[in-house]
Amino acid sequence: MSQFINRIASEQDIEDFLISDYAKFEVLRGARNIKGITSFLNTFSTIKVSPDVLSMAAFLYSAYQVKNICIPKDGDFILAATAFYTPNTFILTADGDDFPRSFFEEVEADYIHFKKAKTEKKIRIYMLKPLWEELSSALNKHRN
Length: 144
What we know:
This protein is of the alpha+beta class. The protein has a single domain (about 5-144), classed as Rossmann fold.
């Protein structure tokens, strides 16, 4: 794991990293080194995409509409719902814009450096905390 992830795990007192079934799908689709990637993914505890998570994703979709927020891909709703549904979780993502700051607080952002085809690359990673109160408030306004 990168220094960034190790540092935030220490600072946030994170004992275990979790991964959604849907996130595993996103990582594995089109991957060439399935065995190696699967081995890495298996170091994380898995959160199942349950019917409750899917209901939460639909709830989020409505909340985004209420706030006139650009609607991301369906998978991002599933990932966001997983974080809302699972207590004390954060989202680590390179797609920070898919998780609007009105419903997520940016706790940390940094770069992960790596090599690809002998070229140094970097990708910005965001650590986001779900804001249940904001989501609940948006939906209560919508119901009234």
